[in-house]
Amino acid sequence: MPAICNLLVLPFPEPFPQNHHAVQKNIRKMFQNSFNLTQNKRTIFFCSLVAILFLLHNCASAQISRTEVPIETESIEKSNEEDLVHFGDLIDVDIVGSVDYDWRGTVNPEGFLSGINFVENPVNAICKTEKEIALEVAESYKKILRDPVIDVKILDRSNRPLTVLNGAIKIPQRFLIKRPVMLNELIISSGGLTDKVSGDIQIFRPRYLNCLSKINRETAVNNSVNSDGGKFIDVKMSGDSEFINVQIENLLSGKKEANPQILSGDVIMVAEAELIYIIGGVVNPTNISSRSVISLTRAIDSAGGLTKDADEQKITIYRNNKEKSEVIEIDLTKIKSNQAEDILLKPLDIVEVGQKGREKRKTLPKVRSIDQNKRNTGNLPIKVIN
After folding, report:
1. What is the tens place of the pLDDT at every residue in 104-116?
2. Pairing of strands 103-105, 275-280
3. Domain that holds residue 149
4. Does 207 fall in a domain?
């Protein structure tokens, strides 16, 4: 009996009807009158009373639960770039419950799923999620099917556009990117930079070959600016394509803003410094990088020095300026005796050391890079980044 009395004085949970105190009072009165009943009727009364209190408590709790559930708002899911459709993807469109309308294939050059049966308007699939494509296909099929259920899956992502890394890199190669990757990681995986590297890396990002550039273009540009307002990378737009220029100095110094994410289809060219050519009476005719300042005597030494038939007094520098070409005559013996200044060479200079018994050249010499490596990008090895 005391347990039941304690139950009757328990407060009802909030919120509850404002007259809950009156309800409690009436129940207590009923409880007091129950003592005038017979034993059997009293037992039935107590059981009924407990059941009523239990139901009232549950109703109040249900009200609390309903008032505490927040109203769901529509949200936009941000998909990963890998989850969006790219050129080269193999896509399967399954109409649940029917095999006559199923479709499997790739997108056409314009980015549409062409050839889907009974779809009047072409479905644009590039940079869309599987769910977005399914909704668009379902809308078209509503004209011939009742409440169509469409399931779209990307079956194969292995034919996506390759990323190319070429230029002043030790191992030029192509990459199939299957996860987020940064510029410095690709350079390291390619053996690093050569000694012919200049000061810039150019990245060409073609239109529609990736999706992340369109989603995060504004963010990427804003993140490339340092605290002083100067840019670590320079981004220029041409239509929907991007031209990105990265300063190698900032990249090598570890500046995060100078290390952009690389996407499928990017063409990365590590610029080589302009060459200086050493020909004629030297042991090893060669070309050297103009990345650092170099003097005439050092350039000759880098070519193995003079041959036995070299004429030190007849050294000619052919200099190609934008405005005009220039021919400079040098006497190396005067430089060695400190009677003349050791001239500094410029990019694209051609240094010809005269040879005894040979007449002086009357025309500009034609030279080419001795170790020039212009490999066809289609023949470069492929490395998977996953």
Report:
1. 999 988 889 877 8
2. unpaired
3. 81-156
4. yes
